[in-house]
Amino acid sequence: MAEAQKLSVRPRQVLGKKVNTLRRQGLLPGVVFGGHADSTPVETDQHAFELSYRRWGNTTLLSLTGLDGGEVPALIYDVSRDPVSGRMLHVDFARVSLTEKTHADVPLHFVNESPAVRTLGAVLLHARSEVSVEAFPQDIPHSIEVDLSGLLEIDDAIFVRDLKVDATLIQIENDPDELVVKAVPVKVEEEKPAEVAVPAEGGRRGRRRGRGRRTGGRRRRCKACRCGCEACRRGRETCRRRRGCRQGRTSQSFRGKGPEEGLATRERRRSEVV
Fold first, then answer.
1. Domain span at residue 78?
2. Structure pTM?
C-alpha cells in the first residue's frame, strides 16, 4: 500500500479570466471534483507542484491539505499546459474513496536490454506505452516495469498477459493478447535508379524554343502589324492577322523587293481577296 503524498492547497476566490493574475504571482489554479461532492476551486504553488508532479505522475495518491473538512484523498486527473511554452496553466484533482476501486492509466517502464537488439541488430516496436488498471487508489502503482531481456530472437514479443503485476491488488483491463513490444528486423529500402532526362524532340531548335517559353523569353513579332502568331514568329509569308505585312520586314514574300514591288504585290492580293 502506497503512502499518500501531501499537497498544500487553499480555496480559490479568483475565477474566470482573472486567474491570469494568479499565474503571474506564481500560483497554479485548479479544481477538486467528484466524490459525490460539489467542485471546489483551489490554488497551489506552481513551482513546488511542478517539481513534485515530475515524480508523482497521474497515478500517485495525494492527500490535499488546507481545505474545509480535513484532508481530501485525490488523484491528479489532468494538467493543462500552454501549447507553445509548455507552462502549466491548470490542474484537475479527482476525489477518490479509499474503500472503492477506481480506474487509472498506468505508464509502462521498459528496463534492461534485449539480446535480439544487441546481437542480431533488431529494433524494438513499441505498441503500447501505458495500460488501464482497476484497483484501490492506494494500490495503484506509479508504473509497471517491462523486462526486455526476454526478447532473445527476432519476432519475439511481450504481450499484456506477460506483464508482472500483483493480480490480487491490480486488475489490467486491456486485452491479454494485445501487443506491448516486439523485436523486428531492420528493413533496408532499395534505392531506385535516377531517371535520365530525355531531350525534347526537334533537335537544338526545339529545345531552344521550349526553354524560351518556360523562362518567359521574348517572342518574335511581325515588325509591321505587331502580330504575335506562329506565322510571324517563324517568318512565313503571311500571318493570321493580315494577308501580308505592309512594310515587308518579316514576311518572306516581301524580302528583297523594293517599295514599288511591294505595293504592287499588295494591290494584286487585295484584288484577289475581293
1. 5-96
2. 0.61
d(CA 144, CA 34): 27
Q: Please check whether residue 196 lies inside any domain of the structure.
A: no
Query: Burial of 69 by CB count in 10 Å (0-12 exposed, 13-18 middle, 19+ buried)?
Result: exposed
Q: Is residue 44 part of a domain?
A: yes
Pick from 59-63, 178-182, 230-234, 270-274: least confident: 230-234
**What is the 3 state secondary structure string of 92-134?**
EEEECCCCCCEEEEEEEEEECCCHHHHHHCCEEEECCCEEEEE
Examine residue 253 and state whether it is found in any structural domain, yes or no: yes
Q: Mean pLDDT over residues 110-117, rounded?
A: 91
In the chain, at which residue ranges do the beta strands (DSSP E only) sit? Answer: 5-8, 10-11, 27-33, 40-45, 62-65, 72-81, 88-95, 102-111, 123-126, 130-135, 144-147, 157-159, 171-172, 179-184
Q: DSSP secondary-structure letter at 50?
A: H
